[in-house]
């Protein structure tokens, strides 16, 4: 009798494990099917939302920004990059964040004024968000699932590149300047790729 109970318990443990693996597999499959178009930010100006789905068919560069950082000068390069490629279907979405060094302490209104006054930023800007940790915006949680620890923002001006199908295809650390040949080549490759082309 004791042996029979042991076998039953063992069988239940195996069954529970199999079911759990199946549910995990389903969740992972659903996560893999998501695209950038499943995520929405709030607009920096407070005028409605900023859904990434409105940029379907465009190449998107998502950058977490800050106004008091050693990399803040990248705003200038990002604006030039946007002006260079926007007519070919390229857009930049800036996401202010105070996560690193508390270097974005201002309100959304103050951030908007700073960007416009100092760098003439015209590309879309989201409202301030967390980009790392438990409270990270769902887009950044998705990026974490996609790229893992190595692709996680370590500082301000980390960049994620999204293809015309909404797939996350690459990331660039803060030290990669907007005029970096590596970044420009990656953008041009996606802009030149036929719609529906498989991406890595």
Describe it.
It is built from five helices and six strands. The chain is of the alpha+beta class and 200 residues long. The protein folds into two domains: 1-33; 36-192, Glutaredoxin. A hairpin with a 5-residue loop joins strand 5 (159-162) and strand 6. 30% of the residues are buried.
CATH C-level class of the largest domain is Alpha Beta
Shape: globular
| Radius of gyration, whole Å | 21 Å
CATH architecture of the largest domain: 3-Layer(aba) Sandwich
Element order: H for helix, E for strand? HEEEHEHHEEH
Q: How are strands sequenced across the largest beta sheet?
A: 4-3-5-6
Largest sheet: 4 strands, mixed
Detail the poorly predicted runs.
none
CATH superfamily (homologous) name of the largest domain: Glutaredoxin
Computed structural class: alpha+beta
The portion of residues assigned to helices is: 25-40%
Question: How many domains comprise the coordinates?
Answer: 2
- The count of β-strands is 6
* N-to-C span: 56 Å
CATH topology annotation of the largest domain: Glutaredoxin
Task: Let me know the average pLDDT.
Answer: 88
> DSSP strand (E) fraction?
5-15%
Count of DSSP H/I helices: 5
């Amino acid at each position: 009798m004791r042996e029979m109970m042991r076998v039953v318990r063992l069988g239940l443990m195996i069954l529970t494990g199999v079911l759990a693996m199946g549910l995990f597999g389903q969740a992972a499959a659903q996560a893999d099917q998501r695209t950038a178009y499943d995520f929405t930010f709030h607009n920096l100006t407070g005028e409605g939302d900023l859904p990434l789905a409105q940029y379907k068919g465009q190449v998107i560069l998502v950058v977490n920004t800050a106004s008091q950082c050693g990399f803040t000068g990248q705003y200038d390069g990002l604006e030039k990059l946007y002006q260079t490629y926007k007519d070919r279907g390229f857009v930049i979405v800036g996401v202010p964040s105070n996560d690193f060094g508390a270097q974005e302490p201002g309100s959304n209104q103050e951030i908007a004024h700073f960007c416009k006054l100092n760098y003439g930023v015209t590309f879309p800007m989201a409202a301030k968000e967390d980009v790392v940790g438990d409270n990270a915006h769902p887009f950044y949680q998705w990026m974490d699932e996609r790229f893992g620890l190595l692709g996680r923002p370590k500082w301000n001006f980390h960049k994620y590149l999204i293809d015309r199908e909404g797939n996350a295809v690459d990331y660039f650390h803060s030290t990669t300047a907007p005029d970096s040949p590596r970044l420009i080549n990656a953008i041009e490759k996606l802009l030149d790729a036929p719609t529906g082309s498989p991406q890595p």
